[in-house]
């Protein structure tokens, strides 16, 4: 009787293992070369004894945020936050210098804690006019699955955003399950002050670094000190990060999200001011064998709320 | 029979648990209030259901390097490295500005990879004239035990050094078992370049930040974005980090290593140019209930090689 119970548990245990192994880690991705390449990559680098095995300490993944993990059109969400409630602004005429000025003006002399609270409060209440959803609901379900899949395989997953580090930190943990210490982004200098036994960090108007373009590998080296082995981006600002990743001595995988779904999201590339995917980037991707993810063809669903809508039918 | 076997395993299991619980996690520390406070702190914040319980994600420890984890007298090891083989230099006349100049001159236009290699090579060969040991052997055994003890209790342990980030990264993993991504230190800007398909990060002569004094909480916020709950330092440069730690809403513990052992190491405090422990710091420690570790009284052994010497007797 006891032997039978033991056997029963043993069989149940192995059945569960088999079930887990056969569960699709990326259910929102359509079957195809891109999905296959991600699974093949993760399987190979985590397989002990494999020629391409990578120890857990070196399994570094870096993922861009705007346009790679969530919607960036018609303008970066952080810009909408910075501009507060003035929704009639002409976003299309904003250039990078102007964005930096707004960025600095909106936070200078504010404590880091106050900034975090106001970003969290805004994210909890602001509604995107097209989708009628909170901005944190406009994240890409297939990428959430990638993050979870990588973390389950002992990858350290970092966000490397051209956007503000503290803005992304305000939602990274709850929305992406990426802890704040794994969020790298553009940031300004802070000033430490200690008054009446109460220490504070105050945001200044001095930039520290912009983690976009060449600033991405520079920031990766500063924060991580190791090269990524897998990286996801979607625009010209991610090119240097992908080159840096590819120069790792380990097996690597570089991917770019291409926004080609005007129905479910947006379609833009070479001509867009926001999230430009230039012809140079298309050439570099081809030359370096970087994978181009078609949102239209490779992603069954775009947003998590589509799954919930499915279930409620 | 099977019941008896089960019982045997159960008893063995619990005996092992008890044995593990009773093993001293800090064998190189003498029994006393400091050792007791570290063990009491770790036990309390990791005990589920305790009023002071802290979830693993918030168990952040920050530890200074020079004078807290390894010897900093008569001059910082990195300065000896930077000056190469010119051992007759008058270290005592070097001020901070001069050190910064040497720091910059010794690495500008060097790639990050080349710098790392040369630091590793130097550390593997250079010998400390007083102890006749490699510099990486002049680390404090009691602090190695603290790092291990914290990591075993799911703390994320970071080094926050006023010294160069890349110099400390060259030995942090092998000597302290602290991964390079947990090393925060003073650093300069790098410049990304991509030539003939070969990307490189080049060190420039532009400083990025100095993580000493107020720069320590600033750097902690930049890299971690969470307040530490336990912090170790040894000099005036660590005061702001300890204040910042103490302002955490969680239970906290702040400690300072006091160099009062002229026989086994060095004795210095208010009058020392290197690792100054000023009367102001003594006052702040008293006022804020920071623990002062006496190297002479609290540490049974200072260096790992003393243990090996003991065993070989």
How would you sum up this structure, described in words?
2 copies of one chain form a homodimer. With 313 residues, chain A is of the alpha/beta class. Helices cover 41% and strands 18% of the residues of chain A. Chain A contains 12 helices and 9 strands. In chain A, the strands form 2 sheets. A 7-stranded mixed beta sheet of chain A has the order 6-5-4-1-7-8-9, sandwiched between helices. The model of chain A has no long low-confidence stretch (mean pLDDT 91). Chains A and B meet through helix 7, strand 5, strand 6, helix 8 and helix 9 of A and helix 7, strand 5, strand 6, helix 8 and helix 9 of B.
Describe the structure in brief:
The first copy, chain A, is of the alpha/beta class and 313 residues long. In chain A, 41% of the residues lie in helices and 18% in strands.
**Number of helical runs of chain A?**
12
Order of helices and strands of chain A: HHEHHHEEHEHEEHEHEHEHH
- Poorly predicted regions of chain A: none
Mean pLDDT of chain A: 91
* Biggest sheet statistics of chain A: 7 strands, mixed
Widest sheet of chain A: strand order? 6-5-4-1-7-8-9
Oligomer: homodimer
Task: Name the shape of chain A in a single word.
Answer: globular
Residue fraction in strands of chain A: 15-25%
The number of distinct β-strands of chain A equals: 9
Greatest interface by residues involved = A-B, 36 and 36 residues
How far apart, in Å, are the first and last alpha carbons of chain A? 46 Å
**Which percent range fits the helix content of chain A?**
40-55%
Radius of gyration of chain A: 21 Å
Category by helix and strand content of chain A? alpha/beta
